[in-house]
Amino acid sequence: MQFPILIILFVFHAINSLDNHKPPSPFGALPSARQLAWHETEVYGLIHFTPTTFENKEWGFGDADPSLFNPRDFDAGQIISAAKAGGLKGLILVAKHHDGFCLWPTKTTEYNISKSPWRNGKGDMVREFEQACRKAGLKFGVYCSPWDRNNEYYGQPEYLDIYRAQLRELYTEYGPLFMSWHDGANGGDGYYGGKREIRKIDNTVYYDWENTWNNITRKLQPMAAIFSDIGPDVRWVGNEKGIAAEKHWATFNPEAETGSIAVPGNVNTRMSNEGTHRGKYWIPAECDVPLRPGWFYHPEQDGKEKSTDQVFDLYLKSVGRGACLDLGLAPGPNGLLHENDVRILKQFGEKVRATFETNLIRGATLIPSHTRGKAYAAKNMQDGDRYTYWSTSDKVQKAKIEIVLAEKKELDLIQLRENIKLGQRVERADIEIMEQGGWRALVSVPTIGANRLIRLDNPIITDRLRITLEAPAPLCISEIGLYKIQ
Ligand code: FUL
Ligand code: CA
Predict the structure, then answer these.
(1) What distance in Å separates the CA atoms of residue 127 and residue 150, rounded to the nearest whole number?
(2) Is any ligand 1 atom within 6 A of the Cβ of residue 294?
(3) Is 184's C-beta closer than 6 angstroms to any atom of ligand 1?
(4) pLDDT tens-digit profile of 146-202?
(5) Class of the domain covering 365-483
(6) Quick one: CA torsion of 173, 179, 184, 190, rounded to 10 degrees?
(7) Alpha carbons 342 and 339: distance in angstroms, whole number
(8) What is the number of the ligand 1 atom nearest to the C-alpha of 143?
(9) For domain 33-356, is the CATH number 3.50.50.60?
């Protein structure tokens, strides 16, 4: 009788340890390669600079004379260096805003840069930005507004062909793009070839987005993450304050949330903020916010830029909640970023670099309550790689990690990352600190995802912390960070 039981036990053990060596199964919706690349970008910029800048407006009506557009000192290098100093890893240029003026010599409309005095009508601003980005090692993307207040055909089927031809030009002339940004603002009054009237469109059908994205964007720019209110790759966060929900799910069911057909301009902004717990699609949020009060430059807003600390706070509330931060930059009529903006970007970049330079987790000892197997050891959370991870076996969905530092250190920022290649799974993380021989609750968060930055109300001095994590599947934590904000 003894013998068969031993065999059964042995086989059981063998199966179990085999299970521990294979990676955990993916959980729920997963990011595509282009979405992973987008997550890694973290902070990028959005540039608004058209005749609207020279009119000192936020929305050009579409009737500005192209001769207005003459930024004498324009230097894409100045703008891109400032962005780079700010730690931005990419830039999206508004190649056409709602006013319809194209910053490149398009064949689709007369209303473009070749009709301006800038560079004697021979200039191509999209190209100058693109080349400056490539030279500085920044990714480049475009925003081409679907709403066009200049175009006489806007509202009619002909306009869709024009818009698609504009996208084709942008997609084929300027190298690989990391994003194609599509705005939700649509229809209303405008110049419309001199008619000066109100044109309403039914945004659930007029743009036929699915065919544009599937047949044009995907084919010509397969790595461009498509942004709109509802995705398909990146969703709008539902506000222009730069803040993701404290509970941010990268997963999202746009159809269910709108209650009707999901198209850009027709989205439940509350739900886009939080996303959908265990949602069907991977569509993380982008938090867009201008550095100044407006998206365009206005001289009366000099001095009203967000401060370095405000931008850092937004960084914690966007990138630090698993979303990305898209910071609006607005050159003035001279074609340069204002010195205040340049200074704030530089200080913000320095603050982020200095803060993350020293990760106190590096020399620490990590003691997890459980580990899936050797390949999923706790040290994988200390190697600076967002995809190597510690994991638990299939049945262990709650575990603790104790952190022991070699000596007491001061810190006020804690970072956690999941290996999102396997999905977003954590539904709760509690952090405790050892004090006078006992554990005291410090802070809790409801989600992690690509990145979670937890700022403590006050700095703590400690050498022992403990993190308790819970998920509906084995845990896959790829990084822990302990920092002191500089
Ligand atoms: C909005 C637009 O209406 C604003 O003018 C700006 O371009 C912003 C980024 O998107 O929807
Ligand atoms: Ca790692």
Answers:
(1) 23
(2) no
(3) yes
(4) 999 999 999 999 999 999 999 999 999 999 999 999 998 788 999 999 999 999 999
(5) mainly beta
(6) -30
(7) 5
(8) 7
(9) no
